[in-house]
Each structure stands twice: as structure tokens, then as C-alpha cells.
Specification:
about 600 residues; 5-stranded mixed sheet; about 10% strand; 22 helices; 11 strands; single chain; alpha/beta; two-stranded parallel sheet; globular
Length: about 600
């Protein structure tokens, strides 16, 4: 008995080791790991010290305790890509933890191998891009997906600390990307309700106390790290910037900036000129110190009154419009991930209802699973409607939503497999094996191949784009005595491919002598510090310092970007300048990537 049990354990460990090696080796050999957007590279720059020269936890987007810890790692061992490594470990670690749970559910070696093959093709068939082109919001979603799956499939038998890992994963996701964690919390709560309802005796003192302790543990952990974050940013400078950041987020991400000509009376009432409005349009608002918190809040409040208001909830689209868009997506614009979700529902129904029908238990089984599916559909529909109402249908938001839903529905299936195995029913293992085979074949023949080609195509586009971005960084390093201010929309993408950086190739954490003329970090204390360290008070005056005895500041823009707005903006302030292209930045292939402008007074 002991030898048999030891042998099964050894087989399980062996299968897991092989799976983990293949899981990491496949994308690492075939692809390089990328940061998805310049948002991710800017976070990396702050915590690594590239931005100011000193690693800092004040990266704004992640909660301070986590950012501080990553910054500390950079201080101890500066030549390691800690931030990218952290995101990759979170994502692949979550996938491995799901694999560990699957091998615990399936008792035979063949069943474990098939389950892990299904997981392999499921992740690389649906989420290959997310695993190798890394975005911190998606990383938070992967952690939440793992927490939901582990919680739903946890053994209902009393075991101290059995849900510690899901709890920690939720808190970790909360620190990585708070908004994604909160958006997916209904799935976590639903997983808790499901587990509670699965108990043999639901309303006992022990069960009530157990689940209250679990909920309290999650909330206490979230409250603790959030309190530390508030404490870290409690100073006047950072508090004021956080208000500015929130107003900017509302305006750009949720409300939109109202047209100047159609709302000229309002803009004149708040003292915003047409020239300064242009800076809001092209995101280069860091140039103008008059664009402050009060102004952005005033514009947001004005625009708020022009949007839809549903019981106090302000959104771009009404409930009716959102329903129409949601219906259109389901019927006409479904993605491969959407089809996978539908397939998961159908397979789960087949898994439960076909064997039940053979045993004359169809309606009993249907009555057991219908409420679970109905509530899950309700949660997903409400969240999708919310995204359509606020018009935030970004992949980095929708993919975590799909991951969480898949975790729930697959978790339900795994739970039933465990229940069937425990009761020793003969028909169920056959259905289980058939289900796994169907998933493997479906993912292998359709989604995996299609997703591989799509990601490979994006990689080629990124290489073309990054040839320009790396040329810019190389140019700035060669001219380290100068300082460069980059037009925001010139720094985002080239021909639809985002400018970013590879995570583990050519790792360079040397100081960057350039900054953006706007963006989410603009006007922050750390951005002002970066400018002050170069001896400048603000961007507006810095760009005019072109004498031979002073360090020079240049403006950088893509060749297709108009810079006449700069001359107009300074002209409004009675400073007549001319933007003169003093240099060009070329790629290795000789193409012109950027123009370098010097601002000269007439």
C-alpha cells in the first residue's frame, strides 16, 4: 500500500515537472517576452531606477508595498529584470498551481496527462499572447483566475489553511492592479457561495465562522496593503497628484474631452485657451502648468452632466445602448475566447446531464446545475454591460473577465468529477475522459494554431516598431548631456504595433535622459524630481534653454506628427519661437524614425 502510494506520488511529481518545463520552455524558445505597452515599461523604469536614477516604489499604478519590494530587489541586485520576472512568475506560477490541483483531482497517470494537455492547449490556445506579451492588468487577472479555480475545487473536508493560497492570490492581484481585482471580486464571492453551498451542513456555527473568517482574511489583507499605500502617498505633493491622476483618468478613460468649439463658453469660463486645449487633445499637457487638478475636475464635472446617468452611475452609453452592443458582440463579433467560453458551458452540461439521463436522473441533475449556471451568466452579463456602458472594451480588461468566467465553469466541472469519483459511479470516468479529449482536440486543431500565427504576426510587427524605439533610446544615450521631451502620441506605437521593450533581452537599467510630454505620470512629484535633477523648473521654460552655456532640451516627435501647435502655444504666451529640426534619428536600416526639434526664439 505504501509503495503504491509512493509510486503514485512520484508519478504525479514527474508529470508536474515535465508540464512545468514545457510550459515555460515553449514560449521562451519560440518567442521573446515583451512588455505589452509603454505603461508597463514606465512602471519598470520607475521601480528599476531608470526613470530618476534611483529605484522607487512610487510607480502610482501598483500599490506601494508591492512596488517598494520590487524596487528593493533592484537596489540589491540591479542587473536583473525583477519587474518583468515578477509578472512572469505570477502568471506561470498561477498556471502551475492550477496544474497541481488538476493532478490532485485526477487519480490516474493517464487522466493527469490528459488534463495537463488540456490545460496546456487551453492556455496557449487562448492566452498565448497574454503569457508572452505581458501586461500587469492581465497578470492581476491570471492571479484572480487561479484563486477562483483553487477555491471552487478545494476539498470540502476540514483542513487548516486549505484556502490560504487563494486568499494570498486575491491580495496579490489587488496590489498589482486594484481595479481588475475589484472588477472580478463578484466571481470570487460567487466561488465562496458555491463552496459554502457544497458543505454537507451549511448553516452550522463552524461553517459560518469558517467562511466569515475567510472573507475577513481577504478584506483584512486588502485593507492592510491599501492602508500602507495611502500612508506612503500621504504627503501634500502626492495627495494632490493622486487627485490630479483621478481627474485625468475620469476625463480620458471614461468621460472623453468635450469639443472646444462646441463648448467654447464653458472653456472660456474656466480659463482654458484653444492652445492649451490642444495639449489636452494630443496628451502633451505636461507642458502647461495651468492644466491642474481644478481644471481637469471642472471639465470632468461639466462632461459628466452631458453623459448618461443611470441611478447616479455616469456612463458614455445608456443601459439600452450597452445591451444592444452586448447582443451584437454575442451574435456577430464573438472572439475565439468567447467561443471557448460557450464550449466550456456546453461540455459542462454534457458532463453532467448525459450520464444523469442514462440513469434516469436528468431533471435532478438539471435542477442542481441550472442555478449555478444562471447565476454565473448573470454575473458575467452585468460586468460586460458595465464595460459597454463605460466603453472600456480593452483586451487587458476583457481577457481577465473571460479568464475568471472560465475558471468558474471549469471549476464546476472539476468539482463534479471529484464527486463522481468519490461515489464510484462507473459511467462518469468515461465521460470525463471524453470531455478532456474533446478539449485537447478542439484547442489543438483550431485555437492553438490560430493564436500561434496571430502572436507570431504581432511579434514581427513589434520588431519593426521597436527598431525605431531602440534607435531613439540609443540616440539619447549617445547624447547623455542633453535632455529630450517626447511627444506622447509619437511614443505609443508604429503602424498599430505598440512601442515597448523586451523583458529579458538587452536588459539595461541605466538612467534615461528623456521623458514624455504627458501621460499618467506627468506632473507627479517623481516627474518633477526628474526634471529638477537636470536643473529645470518646468518643461515650458526648459525647452527654451538653448544657449551654449546651458544644457539643452530638445523636443522629439515622429516624422508624421505636426509640431506647429508648439509654436502656437508659445505664441499665446507672447513668446515667438520657431521649431527647427536639428537632427533625425534613423534605424539600422536607414529609415527615419524620429525628428529632433530645437525651439528657438525669433
Amino acid at each position: 500500500m505504501t509503495d503504491s502510494r509512493t509510486g503514485r506520488k512520484a508519478d504525479r511529481v514527474c508529470v508536474l515537472v515535465i508540464f512545468t518545463i514545457l510550459l515555460v520552455a515553449f514560449p521562451a524558445i519560440v518567442f521573446d517576452f515583451y512588455y505589452d505597452l509603454n505603461d508597463d515599461t514606465l512602471i519598470k523604469d520607475v521601480v528599476s531606477g531608470v526613470y530618476t536614477g534611483t529605484p522607487s516604489g512610487y510607480c502610482v499604478q501598483m500599490l506601494y508595498p508591492l512596488a517598494w519590494l520590487i524596487a528593493l530587489l533592484y537596489k540589491v541586485v540591479p542587473n536583473v529584470a525583477w519587474y518583468g520576472l515578477f509578472l512572469c512568475v505570477c502568471q506561470f506560477g498561477a498556471v502551475v498551481m492550477i496544474a497541481v490541483r488538476l493532478t490532485a483531482i485526477f487519480k490516474t497517470t493517464r487522466g493527469r496527462i490528459m488534463a495537463l494537455l488540456a490545460e496546456f492547449f487551453l492556455f496557449f490556445g487562448l492566452f498565448l499572447r497574454e503569457l508572452v506579451i505581458v501586461q500587469y492588468s492581465v497578470t492581476a487577472g491570471v492571479c484572480m483566475m487561479c484563486a477562483i479555480f483553487l477555491f471552487i475545487t478545494s476539498d470540502s473536508r476540514p483542513k487548516k489553511g486549505r484556502n490560504i493560497i487563494p486568499l494570498l492570490l486575491v491580495v496579490l492581484a489587488f496590489m498589482i492592479r486594484t481595479e481588475i481585482c475589484l472588477m472580478l471580486m463578484p466571481f470570487v464571492l460567487y466561488a465562496g457561495v458555491f463552496q459554502w453551498a457544497s458543505e454537507e451542513k451549511i448553516f452550522t456555527v463552524a461553517n459560518v465562522w469558517k467562511y466569515l473568517m475567510l472573507i475577513g482574511g481577504v478584506l483584512l489583507g486588502m485593507l492592510a496593503v491599501f492602508s500602507l499605500d495611502i500612508l506612503a502617498y500621504h504627503g501634500n505633493e502626492w495627495s494632490n497628484f493622486r487627485d490630479f491622476f483621478d481627474a485625468r483618468t475620469k476625463l480620458y478613460d471614461f468621460y472623453d474631452i468635450p469639443d472646444y468649439e462646441q463648448n467654447i463658453d464653458f472653456y472660456e469660463s474656466v480659463g482654458l485657451s484653444r492652445e492649451s486645449y490642444t495639449l489636452l487633445e494630443n496628451y502633451n499637457f505636461a507642458l502647461d502648468d495651468s492644466i491642474d487638478t481644478w481644471l481637469l475636475e471642472s471639465i470632468a464635472e461639466y462632461q459628466k452632466g452631458r453623459l448618461n446617468n443611470t441611478f447616479g452611475f455616469v456612463s458614455k452609453n445608456s443601459v439600452r445602448e450597452a445591451l444592444w452592443l452586448y447582443k451584437d458582440k454575442l451574435l456577430h463579433n464573438a472572439s475565439a475566447a468567447d467561443f471557448a467560453v460557450v464550449a466550456a458551458y456546453l461540455i459542462y452540461l454534457l458532463l453532467c446531464l448525459v450520464p444523469a439521463a442514462k440513469n434516469g436522473q436528468f431533471w435532478k441533475a438539471f435542477g442542481r446545475i441550472a442555478p449555478k449556471i444562471a447565476l454565473l451568466l448573470l454575473i458575467r452579463s452585468v460586468l460586460w454591460l458595465y464595460l459597454y456602458m463605460v466603453d472600456r472594451l480593452l483586451d487587458r480588461v476583457t481577457m481577465p473577465l473571460i479568464m475568471a468566467e472560465l475558471a468558474c465553469i471549469i471549476g464546476f466541472g472539476m468539482n463534479d468529477i471529484r464527486r463522481f469519483a468519490a461515489t464510484g459511479e462507473e459511467e462518469k470516468p468515461k465521460v470525463t475522459a471524453l470531455t478532456v479529449y474533446l478539449i485537447v482536440i478542439f484547442m489543438l486543431t483550431v485555437m492553438f494554431a490560430k493564436n500561434f500565427l496571430r502572436v507570431n504576426s504581432e511579434y514581427e510587427a513589434r520588431e519593426r516598431a521597436d527598431e525605431r524605439w531602440y534607435a531613439l533610446m540609443h540616440y539619447c544615450r549617445e547624447n547623455e548631456e542633453q535632455y529630450y521631451v517626447i511627444d506622447v502620441y509619437s511614443s505609443t506605437s508604429y503602424e498599430g504595433a505598440s512601442y515597448s521593450e523586451k523583458i529579458f533581452c538587452d536588459v539595461d537599467h541605466s538612467y534615461k535622459n528623456f521623458d514624455y510630454c504627458g501621460g499618467w505620470l506627468a506632473k507627479s512629484p517623481i516627474a518633477r524630481q526628474k526634471l529638477a535633477d537636470r536643473g529645470f523648473r518646468d518643461l515650458q521654460s526648459a525647452l527654451l534653454k538653448q544657449s551654449l552655456t546651458q544644457k539643452k532640451v530638445y523636443f522629439v516627435a515622429a516624422p508624421n506628427r505636426d509640431v506647429e501647435w508648439l509654436e502656437t502655444y508659445y505664441g499665446r504666451r507672447n513668446i515667438n519661437i520657431v521649431c527647427e529640426c536639428i537632427d533625425e534619428i534613423h534605424t539600422d536600416s536607414g529609415e527615419t524614425a524620429f525628428f529632433v526639434y530645437g525651439l528657438k526664439k525669433k
